[in-house]
Amino acid sequence: MEFLKIGDKSLLYPIIQGGMGVGISLSSLAAHVAGNGGMGIISTAQIGFREDDFYKNPIEANLRAVKTELQKARDIAAEVFENRFKVSKQASKFLEKLKNYNPFIGFNIMVATNKYADYVIEAVKAGADIIISGAGLPIELPELVAKGQALSENAKKTCIAPIVSSRKSAKVILKMWDRRYNTTADAVVIEGPLAGGHLGFSYDELHELGADTMASKNYKREKYDAEIKEIIEEVRIYEEKFGKKIPVFVAGGIYTKEDMDHAISLGADGVQMGTRFVTTYECDAPDDYKQTYIDAKEEDIVITKSPVGMPGRAIRNDFMDRLKTGPIPIRHCHNCLALSVCDRKTIPYCITDALCSAANSDESHALLFCGSNAYRATALEHVEDIMKELTEK
């Protein structure tokens, strides 16, 4: 089996675990996915929400947690990897190749994050293998990574991967990186309309794709498949220009090996999955959060409007029903998002409060983001079993 090259690094299996905040994909989930040969991703969205000083100094708490969560993930992943693959001198030829393999762990950092540059630089200094960035156009990402590396004692290079939803956005990002920095992506994530959380589509676009109701049972897959092929074609232009492989990963609605095989049949190199990993024993989310997925019916998965103005996919609950009667007062601003995307005076609720409530088992005040396939979960699973299901013939 050949590893998938991403920049100067190697990935055993072409599976990225999607970054999910607040507190859903932290060190445990990322470590177990990485230790089982996939790419583990920690979300920096209010990553320090359990720090003692979070409500006083949220940004400082978050930046501090970037380093501690990555180190915890590295320690756990090393042990998981050793137990899973049992690398030894007597190993088979395949396992011999794994002797020099290091579990692949990085961060998802939203462009819309307040102090975005600080988070990127801190992640690089901490030794992240990759930064995946969306929720805006990560035009300055190469420059920020270079700054982080200049300040870092780590010799390793941090790979960069934008999240895109259209050929147009891929073209803008890759063209700007080429012109400004004479560089390109190490990987690209295509996030489609069936993804969880914030979506890179307008309400009209979601409706046109049949991805706006009933867990998207009317989804026009062939229409977005054509867009995926267009994006891959755009990426290949820069792959050829820079003489390097740029793996493309398809995200949104990926739940089974059949879904993965379909994405690869379109020309993708791998997939990114979030929702499937939520209902694992190793996920950082609390048990009642996971149970909400298991209990959800197809009709419970709906599109809602985020305070930042973007559509989002979540599980309907009492909190969402209360929003229909009017705004929920904001008790405290956590400075989580840039002022350009969050108008503190007009937003209907605080997204940090709602997502922290979900991560703290306070469902009556919780926004429960999920992908379109959340209702398919019937029981908790182990990450290792999911990885085996997706990669073994």
Can you characterise this structure?
By secondary structure, the chain is an alpha/beta fold. It is built from 14 helices and 13 strands. The strands form three sheets. The protein has an eight-stranded parallel β-sheet with strand order 3-11-10-8-7-6-5-4. It has a three-stranded antiparallel β-sheet with strand order 9-13-12, with no helix packed on it. The chain has a two-stranded antiparallel sheet with strand order 1-2. Helix 1 packs parallel to helix 2, helix 2 runs parallel beside helix 4 and helix 6 runs parallel beside helix 8. The chain is globular.
Question: Outline of this structure?
Answer:
The protein has 393 residues and is an alpha/beta fold. It has helices at residues 27-35, 58-85, 93-97, 116-126, 141-150, 167-181, 203-208, 221-242, 257-265, 275-278, 287-295, 318-323, 351-359, 383-391, and strands at 4-6, 9-11, 15-17, 39-43, 104-108, 130-133, 159-164, 188-191, 197-198, 248-251, 270-273, 301-305, 311-315. The radius of gyration is 20 Å and the shape is globular.
Record field, number of beta strands = 13
Sheet/helix structural class: alpha/beta
- Helical residues, percent: 25-40%
- The DSSP helix count reads 14
Task: Give the strand order, joined by hyphens, for the main sheet.
Answer: 3-11-10-8-7-6-5-4
End-to-end C-alpha gap: 13 Å
Q: Radius of gyration, Cα only, in angstroms? A: 20 Å
